[in-house]
Amino acid sequence: MANQDVEEVWNLVEKIGFCMLATHEGQDIRSRPMAAYVDRKAHAIYFLTDVASHKDADIAANPNVNLAFADTSGQNYVSVSGTAEISNDREKIKELWGTPAKAWWESPEDPSIRILKIDPKDAHYWNSPGTAVSYIKMFAAAVSDSRPDMGDTGTVKL
């Protein structure tokens, strides 16, 4: 079952695509939305980031991060913990270049673009039957004084 759970996590991360990246900023935790690029073969989740962003300094001080993926329409969620590193891999930047990046930079040649690579350590996921079914199950449980079956959940080592 563990391999199936790992596949489920990777599938959800790829399907959802956008997440909130949480980093440590001193004693505080800060999150910001990011477009994820999943590479299962490399066992990595990549992002394009800007050299002037605060998250680069946060990661340099503490590379432990969390990625929170949420598909609210389908009620599917994944929380990935891992370590981050920043690089100036120009080939990887060109490889990942696409529509989300065009909102922030004019071209992959922009010298301020950096690669943020996350090495995922583990993940917790919640995969429910969907919003409408979930509400029906919660209502049925509330009137019957039982707990609803809200789908699959688990924690996996990545």
Describe the structure.
With 158 residues, the chain is an alpha+beta fold. It has one domain: Electron Transport, Fmn-binding Protein, Chain A (Pnp Oxidase, Chain A, Roll). The protein is 30% helix and 42% strand. The chain has five helices and eight strands; from the N terminus they run H-E-E-E-E-H-E-E-H-H-E-H-E. It has helices at 2-16, 54-61, 90-96, 99-102, 131-144; strands at residues 18-25, 28-35, 37-39, 44-50, 64-71, 76-87, 113-127, 152-157. Strands 1, 2, 3, 4, 5, 6, 7 and 8 form an eight-stranded antiparallel sheet that branches. It is globular and about 60 Å long. The model is unreliable at 131-141 (pLDDT under 50).
Question: What would you say about this model in short?
Answer:
The chain is 30% helix and 42% strand. About 7% of the residues have low confidence. The chain has 158 residues and is of the alpha+beta class.
- At CATH level 2, the architecture is Roll
Structure annotation, total helices: 5
Mean pLDDT: 87
Count of distinct structural domains: 1
Distance between the termini: 14 Å
CATH level 1 name: Mainly Beta
**Mind telling me the CATH superfamily name?**
Electron Transport, Fmn-binding Protein, Chain A
Structural class: alpha+beta
Q: What is the molecular shape? A: globular
How many β-strand stretches?
A: 8
Question: Low-confidence stretches at least 5 residues in length (pLDDT < 50)?
Answer: 131-141
Helical content stands at 25-40%
CATH fold topology = Pnp Oxidase, Chain A
